Amino acid sequence: MISLRPHQERAIxxxxxxxxxxxxxxxLAAPCSFGKTRVAAFILAEAAKRGKKGVFICDRIKLVQxxxxxxxxxxxxxxxxxGDHWRWNPAADIQICSIQTLARRHDKLPFDIAVVxxxxxxxxxxxDYMNAFNAVPFIGLSATPFSKGLGKxxxxxxxxxxxxxxxxxxxxxxxxYWGGKKANVKGLKRRKxxxxxxxxxxxxxxKRLTSDTELTGDIxxxxxxxxxxxxxxxxxxxxxxxxxxVEQFNDAGISAEHxxxxxxxxxxxxxxxxxxxxxxxxxxxxxxxxxxxxxxKVRCLIxxxxxxxxxxxxxxxxxxxxxxxxxxxxxxxxxxxxxSNLGMPEYIVPEHLDDGEEKFDERxxxxxxxxxxxxxxxxxxxxxxxxxxxxCGYEVPRxxxxxTDGSILEEIKLAKKExxxxxxxxxxxxxxxxxxxxxxxxxxxxxxxxKYRERFGVWPNKIDPVMAEKAHQDTLNWITHSRIKWxxxxx
Length: 491
Known about the structure:
Layout lengths: L5 H15 L4 E5 L6 H14 L4 E5 L2 H13 L4 E4 L12 E5 H6 L8 E4 L7 H9 L5 E5 L13 E3 L4 H6 L6 E5 L10 E3 L5 E3 L1 H10 L1 H14 L5 E4 L3 H13 L4 E3 L6 H12 L5 E4 L14 E4 L6 H9 L11 E5 L3 H5 L32 E3 L6 E3 L23 E3 L11 H18 L5 H10 L16 H18 L1
Parallel strand pairs: 1-6, 1-7, 2-4, 2-5, 3-4, 5-6, 8-15, 11-13, 11-14, 12-13, 14-15
Antiparallel strand pairs: 8-18, 9-10, 16-17
Helix pairs in contact: 1-2, 7-9, 13-14
């Protein structure tokens, strides 16, 4: 019997409801660390109980082994169709297959239900199987179903939980974000992506970053300042840039190693195990760790790889959100500007699949991020703010993109859990109370804005204060509580 958590049970019910409505091609969109493999195992185990054959399709060999390890934990009757794998067993109820092996099979593998891992990467082979087995349910799994034309192959999207909900339910590790000095991407060439759209050409980007010695120094300095000596992974635009950064860290006395897909498998495995044991601090790559990398002890992410892709952005952040003992929070050091350009991953939630009918844009497929959570870096005071105006007085030009040259990263905060559902009216009243108190006490002009940010994690941009003759008691209570908390931290 496979036990499920409440959000996983909700996913099963939503999938069943979609199937009852006649949908045969369904995407289950669930955040990293949701437990999608466990849900897949439950689906296929239930099918096997009814005498049905099921298949779990992976897009890379490494994921085949990970799925097998997970399915074995549930004592399922599993065979593997991948090269000459030793677990070959065509009589098994459940088959785990790599898409590459399926592509080489001329006869179609018979099955009654299919689960497709990382379905945002869609292959022609999978299209062939979907056409050949048009009456068989195909359930796609992805944290990032933002690929171009995915809606041509899947007819329904179910979203049982958002990252914020999983954070609130303590199934994800909260992340502290630091942003500021970032790479200059002006004038860089772009290239098309297999998932649609375009991104910066990694070779041109790598050369730009390798020559930026100031940024390289900032990366090391900020890791020393904010990384808390944590086990860390790093993303770089190219393999050569990753190796360059490893040299820089080692020269600075910080143990680092590079890893890539061209290494022999046993060398990669040795690096994974050594890093997991804490034998060195920083494991650097280009894209290898983006998906299928499961190391809950990793606490810090250095992002030195600017991207325009939501898929890349969300997948990277998910690497550090897994729960682990003693891991109260994770750390994201953004030297790429991805947080300010693409938003906080916790707020990126899919809303529909792209059907290929309109001009492709990943962000059109997501729910709108709350306006107050979209962070920017101020080029005058280097603080993080939201909206179009910083508390220092700087206003964002309507037709000019933001730049920053601050060398020390500033923290970007999510709205606190207890404040996420506070109404706009209540926020306006609270801000008005703060202004009233500040005037009565003779505080500096920015006191009220800073107190608002202390509570909600963002500046009060686009908040029109509602003034009262006297500050409300709940506001006074909050100020008293914050002072007590501050005095305790000082002690």
